[in-house]
Task: structure prediction
Amino acid sequence: MDLLIKLATQLDDKEFDQVLDQVKKVNKKDLVQEYIDIVNKFMNEGTDLGSATHFAYMDLLIDPETGKEKS
Result:
């Protein structure tokens, strides 16, 4: 819940919409907790929220070799 509050208060509307789309995709693959853990890890290291959510999404759902979403 803390992450949701941070998302709602720290991101502009466009960034927030992008993150919501990412969370929907992560949720379909039952990876929400992993997503939250990665976001928190990056934020604890000093990464801003927008970048942390992007890194978590890329790590969980994007194949680094093809640049496309993992199936």
Summary: The radius of gyration is 12 Å.
